[in-house]
Amino acid sequence: MAQTLRAIVLGSEKKAHIYQHLLGQLPGYELVGFFDPDDAANVDMLGGLMHSLELSSKADVFFLDRHVRHVQAEWMGHFIKMGKSVFIDGFRNWGLDELEQLEKWRQEAQGVVQFAHILYNKPLFTSAMQLIRKPRFVKIEKHCNAPKAGQFSAWLFEQLSQEFDLIQRSIQSSVRQVMARPLFLFGDNPDLLNIHIEFDNDAVAHIALGRAIEPGMHKLRVFQADRLYHLDFSSQEISEFRPSQPDIQPQLNLESDWNPADNQIAEFSEIPRTIMPFDSWKMELRNFQENCQLGLTPTTHLEHIIDSRQLCDWISERVQRKYQEV
Predict the structure, then answer these.
(1) Predicted confidence (pLDDT) at residue 101 exceeds the cutoff of 50
(2) Mean pLDDT, all residues of the chain
(3) Distance CA 73, CA 95 (A)
(4) Which of 137, 225, 242, 296 is most exposed by smallest CB count within 10 Å?
(5) Residue in 107, 87, 111 with CA at minimum distance from that of residue 7
């Protein structure tokens, strides 16, 4: 019989009740309590998390809620070093050195560190990955507010870390070159950030991000040898486009908003694709349980966020070196 996993939620009491409901739907979990890192009473004078040793003795797994604001990578390291497994809701804006240290401790202790509730694990992209094969060009357009002065690096990670993860896992190749250029259209803060990424397998990714993008837009377009896919994160829709004449390839203008309906070389037929319906939270929690009990590797783990963090750092360094005002 599989071992019951004793769990502690790192989050507010309200969030603990939500996790209690979610975990209660699955056998094999026992929620033994919660601990709120945002409560000043739970933090010592040096900013360290109090009672970490006591907490570790009471639980096998820890759930870090995404709404916890003040949480250091070092705190999570205490649990990881003790062989505990950690379920982290969303990517956390920790430094590259901190993430690499966490991965070193995880390898030594042989625990599980799983990232959940991100774009890659949700039904839209899970369904798309059943279709995408060897993409040659990926384009992302996303509307968001402009970064505040001095907060460019944090803004970039918040807005694009998950999209970088999608791109790198779709293309499956090392980054060869990165170029980034902010545009100042309405004031002193960048209103549009254009990013151009080239990979060792000659695939290319282009990202346009900022408030100069049409409000509400969040799209990913994947071009491959014989077709292309549009993923709309706002409307949760996938469309596939195939040329009516398979022997003719579309000419791609990487700078323009290319639309298959406007292509003069070959007509395209649109095929709406079905998104596989599933409860992503229930699937994540069930997978986490299996990973902990069987020693399996999570779908999204520390190496994925490390890759995304590294790309964010490269872009931040290039932009801030040339445009010191951001």
Answers:
(1) yes
(2) 90
(3) 8
(4) 225
(5) 87
